Amino acid sequence: MCQKTLLLLLFCYNAYATVSPRWSRAMLFPAAQRYKRSLSALVSPVLQNSLDDVDMLFEFLLAELEIDKGLKISIKDEELASLRKAKEFDTICNDIIPKSITEIRRLSVRLSNYPTVLKKEDFERTVLTMVYTAYRAAQSRKHQKAVWAESFISLYKALKHDLMFSHSKKPLH
């Protein structure tokens, strides 16, 4: 009986370790997995699927964002906020990206140990976490400001590493 249990545990561990990159993404943004499971259809909101989407995200970030006391992020411009992409932006910012300094530090550690190039949704979510972190640093005082700034720098370094890693993996034309 003990041998069967041990074999089962080893099999589960091996299966977990060799699962597709989907598990790596789940580890970076666990809230994304919880969000998917709470919906009837599997959804993975991604804002940037085209150049127009990139421009739209840039508009969202340039528009005045508001973070209320409950840490809910919203776009102040009502016209922009009414767009379909704004709903996806809202979902990512309020249901997926980490908001506490502990969760953001955990993300930074995971990113520093991430073995491959980030998927576009993970890269995008990391950038949005960086934006949130910069906002919190700007709104904080003294020690808290330093903690948020340090987290911002860690995320920046992880994204810089990912960009350099992805650039080195591209074939020369």
Summarize the structure.
The chain has 173 residues and is mainly alpha-helical. The protein has helices spanning 2-17, 22-28, 30-38, 51-62, 78-81, 84-96, 101-112, 120-139, 142-169, and strands at 65-67, 73-75. The model is unreliable at 2-26 (pLDDT under 50).
Strand count, sense and barrel status of the largest sheet are: 2 strands, antiparallel
| Gap from first CA to last CA | 58 Å
Radius of gyration: 18 Å
Task: Output the strand order for the largest sheet.
Answer: 1-2
Helix content: 55-70%
How many helical stretches?
9
Quantity of strands, as a count:
2
**Pairing-aware structural class of the strands and helices?**
mainly alpha
- Spell out the helices and strands N to C: HHHHEEHHHHH
Q: Assign an overall shape.
A: globular
Protein name: Family with sequence similarity 180 member A
Signal peptide: 1-17
Pfam families: FAM180 (PF15173)
Organism: Pelodiscus sinensis (Chinese softshell turtle)
Defining traits:
173 residues, mainly alpha, two-stranded antiparallel ribbon, 2 strands, 3% strand, disordered N terminus
Describe this structure in words.
This protein is mainly alpha-helical and 173 residues long. It is built from nine helices and two strands, in the order H-H-H-H-E-E-H-H-H-H-H. The protein is 70% helix and 3% strand. Strands 1-2 form a two-stranded antiparallel sheet. A hairpin with a 5-residue loop joins strand 1 (65-67) and strand 2 (73-75).
